[in-house]
Write a structure and sequence with these properties.
The protein is an alpha+beta fold and 103 residues long. The chain is built from three helices and six strands; from the N terminus they run αββββαββα. Strands 1, 2, 3, 4, 5 and 6 form a six-stranded antiparallel sheet that branches.
């Protein structure tokens, strides 16, 4: 998954935390290798990404900063951690709009 793909994925699921592994591709042909560099927990809040890496230090990154940090990497499949930073995704999943039903 590319950085752009990951940002699109996270934007559609704002407020939910996902665990991803960063991958570095090197070499070509028979010498091609993929190395895992670390696990990150990412949450999209508005236009910013909250990223917590292997050090445990959270950083809030703009999308431009996200590309500057992670632009040369690819990512493994995002896995939901079950952590929600707000209730927005909860209502989006159930289809409940928060309004009272007419009787």
């Amino acid at each position: 998954m590319t950085p752009d793909d990951l940002l699109t994925f996270l934007a559609a699921r704002g407020g939910q935390e996902y665990r991803v592994v960063t991958l570095l591709h090197s070499g070509r042909g028979k010498k091609a290798q993929v190395r895992e560099l670390g696990e990150y927990r990412l949450t999209m809040r508005g236009h910013a990404v909250l990223a917590c890496g292997p050090s445990g230090q959270p950083r809030q990154l703009s999308q431009g900063e996200f590309h500057a940090v992670f632009g040369t990497y690819t990512f493994g499949t995002p896995e939901a951690t079950g952590v929600l930073t707000d209730l927005g995704p909860l209502f989006a999943l159930t289809g409940h709009d928060g309004g009272a039903e007419a009787t």
